[in-house]
Please model this.
Amino acid sequence: MKDIAPLSVYPVPGLPEIRPGDDLAALLARAVAERVGPLESGDVVVVAQKVVSKAEGARVALAEVTPSAFARDFAERWEKDPRLVELVLRESLRIVRMERGVMITETRHGFVCANSGVDLSNTGGSEEGSGARGEGGEIAVLLPEDPDQSAARLREGLGRGAGAGGKDVEVGVIVSDTFGRPWRVGLTQVALGVAGLAPLVDLRDTNDVDGRPLHATIIAMADQLACAADLVCGKTARVPAAVIRGYRPPEGDGQATGISGRELIRDPAMDLFR
Amino acid sequence: MKDIAPLSVYPVPGLPEIRPGDDLAALLARAVAERVGPLESGDVVVVAQKVVSKAEGARVALAEVTPSAFARDFAERWEKDPRLVELVLRESLRIVRMERGVMITETRHGFVCANSGVDLSNTGGSEEGSGARGEGGEIAVLLPEDPDQSAARLREGLGRGAGAGGKDVEVGVIVSDTFGRPWRVGLTQVALGVAGLAPLVDLRDTNDVDGRPLHATIIAMADQLACAADLVCGKTARVPAAVIRGYRPPEGDGQATGISGRELIRDPAMDLFR
Model:
């Protein structure tokens, strides 16, 4: 390798099954220290939404959900669990599409995604109660109430004493989830919550190499950071986080902008597809 | 750093301005050798569409474009160059949205993007002819004719003799571009063309850590690799490529699937948003 320092993405395995009330920042900090080593200021820690929601107790037992007639009707038509359909509706502001059994909704936060982000997989449901995987014991995990707040809390806990020699460091944190998108096959990661880094880079006022002004080129860096993290985080293995080292927002070439994941949500009035 | 080898992303700067007919693979191979070092089998080289198109001569002088009445009308209403609007229409199979001056089209390849991927920025237009930036001298760069073929050609040229000691290596190549998307602010990279790696990872037949089957979880790894590369490629600086080292498609956890970028295009019949 020559003179160029690469950007590096380290997987963070070794987290236990997360339960409501767990101190996720502390558990993550320990796993990072053990598996990656000391953090450095400027590192970006990308954490899967699922473990954040679990720690925050953003979960509902399906047995406690009473589906509406509307939910029962849709569920029956498409062979879905009516309680899950009901939860998806409850978590949504608006239904964007509801066809072929697919529910694409706008969540309370403004995210547009399948099933309002409500998820039955990897929920640790089988470890509740009797340990049996009965229908009645099933747990749905919801999106965090406020992913930016979640990221901010994790940031505080992750930076404290995490540097070499126990120094405090300033890290960025992204709470990420796996969303589908129109037009293209396959899911990619998106940044739900962001703290300690600018989610966007605005190249609008810069010139390209020919001196031509670049119009309307805003790059969703936080989403791209989340995608990079996913390259080392298997969906099925217990790798719920990654550390990205060496990312530097452009200087001079563009303007890092924004402070939250909320700013990655397109204003519905400006969205041709909502 | 502890025992975990990270995934690494190396920027590849140092490419000259690319002209039609240039041997892009050779130029890239030299830049990689000088700035990154020998390639290893399994490395993924992500190359910006713009330099690929330039080398392939996928460019049109605006002076040679005669806009239709339809193009002139739309251009006038939204203060656009009618010749550019005409080119966008020519490069498209279908218009997906045409509102507020924005043209979102389905290209001949099936990509859905703004302006059919036709681009005036960073085109090297000022270096044509007199060197003056006159309207008449402006050059539009189109998407490559067949991005998968472009990637396959680059792959052959990049792997040959590029390893340590001049050995041949098997690399993956992604030809990437910057696309917008509905619902979210900011552009991200997408893989237009893919060679030598599986663009998708299919987790549908695997179980999650609770033993619950994961349905319909197909990850667009090639797009995520392209996003990771963009973290080290400034849009305005001359960094048109990156080398990703240490990416391994999941084994056991899922099934790497597909061989081309074409497979990342959603079947229009299955797309609720086209």
Summary: The first strand of chain B starts at residue 7 and ends at 12. DSSP finds six helices and 13 strands in chain B. Residues 126-136 of chain B have pLDDT under 50 and may be disordered. Chain B touches chain A through 84 residues (CB under 8 Å).
